[in-house]
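Ticket #4471: structure output looks truncated?

Reporter: J.K.
Steps to reproduce: submitted the chain below (211 residues) through the standard prediction queue, then opened the result file.
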Amino acid sequence: MRRTPHFLLEDTLEVKRLIRENPWATLVSHTAHGLVASHYPIVLEETADDEISIVSHVGRPDETSHELGRHELLVIVQGPHGYVSPAWYPADQIIPTWNHVTAHLYGTPEILSDDENFRVLTDLVDHFERRMPEPVSLALDEEGSRRVARGTVGIRLRVTRFDARLKLSQNKAPEVAERIIGALEGDGPYAHPALADEMRRVHRPTDEGTA
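Returned output as attached by the reporter:
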């Protein structure tokens, strides 16, 4: 990604937040046969603050297509993003942009054993089902669930480096940023409340909460 100083995200805890809130990721491998991309849910593991570890799974034969475990894997996590119209800028500023929150995670994945893969799959289902009024668990039919799990391969990615961006109009004057946030929170054609929330995080007054 373009390395614009205004937009660099170097805080590991913020990258972890991005992963927690946006678990649908793109996996990209540079294989002997060219580039391969797939899309799967990921779950953040609890680790030290300065470490990032994620677990996921792929459906067979994606583990072969990606040559998993043989080289570095790129995992792309995309947070809220959307069009920013120059109609929200002062009259002399006419170039639109696209605001976004994005992280590129790198590491060589570890292939999980069948038992650990099933544990990860169980945790994955539990992670998303906990919001449901009557959560469903793989434990309701463990034997059948294990049969289905044999069609998947579990992976753990301990992130060795990341490249992340918060491009949220940090280069605009506070009153312009506030106008953009207001438009995103409105009911216009490019309304995007989640993106507005991300902007408020970075444009929060520095003296907020002080006397």
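Triage note (M.O.): checked the attachment and the full token line is present. Residues 13 and 48 are 10 Å apart (CA to CA).
Status: closed, working as intended.
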